[in-house]
Design a protein that fits this description.
The protein is α+β, with helices and mostly antiparallel strands and 105 residues long. Helix content is 30%, strand content 28%.
Length: 105
């Protein structure tokens, strides 16, 4: 009878560890919920009330990035505006922060 209890305990333990193992694999492989693999970035967020925010996020593949301005409340998320993301340009060494005027001459 004790062998049956040991087997039953092991089966329950394995079944209980399946969700933990799946979550670990998702983090390890970089796979998340649908849509999270697109490298989403929060550009700005402004609180307009105790439970309301206006958030600008950058989404999409690297060659076609889009900024979405969203109204976020506790019950709803609404798209307020959509625009193309500005193309980022590398900062020139002379324009880099922390460089003094003497080093530019």
């Amino acid at each position: 009878m004790s062998a049956a209890w040991v087997s039953l305990t092991l089966v329950v333990l394995v079944l209980a560890l399946i969700p933990v193992a799946l979550k670990w694999l998702q983090r390890r492989m970089g796979v998340g919920p649908v849509g999270s693999s697109m490298n989403t970035k929060v550009v700005a967020a402004v609180a307009v009330g105790p439970h309301q925010r206006v958030v600008t996020v950058e989404v999409g593949p690297p060659e076609a990035r889009v900024w979405l301005t969203l109204g976020v409340t506790a019950q709803n998320i609404s798209c307020l505006h959509t625009s193309n993301a500005p193309v980022s340009t590398p900062v020139a060494m002379s324009d880099a922060p922390g460089t003094s005027l003497a080093s530019r001459v």
